[in-house]
Specification:
- 2 copies of one chain form a homodimer.
- Chain A has 11 helices and 11 strands.
- The first copy, chain A, has 346 residues and is α/β, with parallel strands linked by helices.
- Chain A starts with a strand and ends in an 18-residue tail after the last helix.
- The interface between A and B is large, with 70 and 72 residues.
Amino acid sequence: MTDLISIAVDAMGGDDAPDVVLEGVAQALSARPFLNVLLCGPEDVVVPFAEAHDRCTAVPCSEVIAMDEHPANAVRTKKDSSIVVGCRLVREGKAQGFFSAGSTGACLAAATLVMGRAKGVKRPALGVVLPAYDQPVFFADVGANADCKPEYLVQFAKMGAIYMEHVMGVSNPQVGLLNIGEEDTKGSSLALGSYELLRQEVPEFKGNCEGGDLLAGKFSVVVTDGFTGNVCLKTIEGTSKMIFRHIKSALTSSLTAKMGAALVKGSLAKLKEDLNPDRFGGTPLLGVKGTCIVGHGSSNAEAIKNGVIAACTQVEGKVSERIAEAFANAPGTPASQAAPEEGSAS
Amino acid sequence: MTDLISIAVDAMGGDDAPDVVLEGVAQALSARPFLNVLLCGPEDVVVPFAEAHDRCTAVPCSEVIAMDEHPANAVRTKKDSSIVVGCRLVREGKAQGFFSAGSTGACLAAATLVMGRAKGVKRPALGVVLPAYDQPVFFADVGANADCKPEYLVQFAKMGAIYMEHVMGVSNPQVGLLNIGEEDTKGSSLALGSYELLRQEVPEFKGNCEGGDLLAGKFSVVVTDGFTGNVCLKTIEGTSKMIFRHIKSALTSSLTAKMGAALVKGSLAKLKEDLNPDRFGGTPLLGVKGTCIVGHGSSNAEAIKNGVIAACTQVEGKVSERIAEAFANAPGTPASQAAPEEGSAS
């Protein structure tokens, strides 16, 4: 029993909750024999499921935070919602991690307010592992902090390097700064300031990464502000979606193409799946006291499974502990319990 | 003769200049019987070409600005470079437009310093026409202004709407603001300020456009700051490149796939070409006194041809005149001859 990893899961998170969440949790429990799930949600949803599954405990909650609610307000008022309860289980040490495919904004707010920021961390960052060509890339911030300062980006870089090393097994991860040119004289005032500070404080920093190189595998960690990061992440998804839509049209444009399409269908479907960011199971919020992973609202059961497993892997990699250790003695403001910024992405 | 449109072309712009430039110019001259080219470059390059082609005049220049030179310094010191001379021809009324596939930064600097900003325009914007799914989208700024204010984005929106209406023939173009959520409470401080000002001043403004919707054809014009725009544009190109690289691998992964690949090759090659932003022939710089289009450094002859023709089309659509008219009476600071910002993309 001592080796079990307990993950609190929001049964009501996502567009197709609770059905796909329950299916995903069942798959994760089968895949990971050391996983213990604390399933948070309405009693009639979580109790029957927990009774039918080993290593699953029902945590009945009387409230649900909807996707369109104001994140910080919802978290403050709905103390018995599945998101707030899940984060509370982590704070109380009953779970080591929390996963939800619900409102990103509400998860950010709950994790920051309820779990709390790690000491020394100025702003928790929402990261994502991108399926780059040769190797995965950790990209942050993708929406937790719309307005940033250079010192935040330095912290994102340090947290991202810890994540890549201890979750993805990348030794000596190279860090890049998302920018509009390779030269150190290029960029917005934020990028110019960040370049200088990264150079001074992050030994793994290797220079600027242009948008076109984000997926080229030149860096293991790429940092930017949460506005640019969110726009970029969604642009990658949108571009990929558009190209596959075009491919579908192109492959039915002639009889020859249709015949060929029948033969390449399998390879293209596999490719589409490989490129799906859901494969990595959601976006970790780094810099809070505990593991918190937020899945896509459109997650299917497979994505939920991957998200829950990703939370396990992050716990196993002791990411939160390592970040706490790295930042505890770092110069900076003491970590007070600040409310998350207004205007963060949902 | 009175109906000829004169475009100054930088013979030395681009990675494969002058050969591909000359080939592209020859193709453009054949395609457009009313095009007159003023070819700027070294005497031994431009004179023989002009002698061999109708409607082409050689404009010998003794200097060339290299891709890696500091843009503003190069423009100030190399008065007889092909880029500066081309812009001067427009200022003097000898050409109506200028095209170069050379250093973007130098073209921006030369156009701003030599042609000058249109009265009332605070910051010229570099735009690009993206090949979105159902309809093209004008996206700006993609790198002329790394740091922006809300009033600049309002001007980008107005200039973009004029461009789409009079160059691309889109009636009543809908304007969107690139942002990290659809709601008006989302975004960085720049996005929040821009949303409010766009709502007040731009009747065509229809709300926020998330990164994933940039290529979805929901808007005809999408505005953002030059940092986010540049990163986004290059991310689209990088994503597209990565997917086609993956497709190539996927289609050779098995014998069945290889057989199918032979049949779908043609359709996919056409698709790749359709999605190539070079199809639209480069990025127009809007807000200067005259037409200025900057092509990709990697332009092939086809892209050069399209760029020169795009300059013609912009002249025919009287875009500069319409922008001058729209802004002349607009409130704002008088248009002084400011140097372009340091840190702009090259």
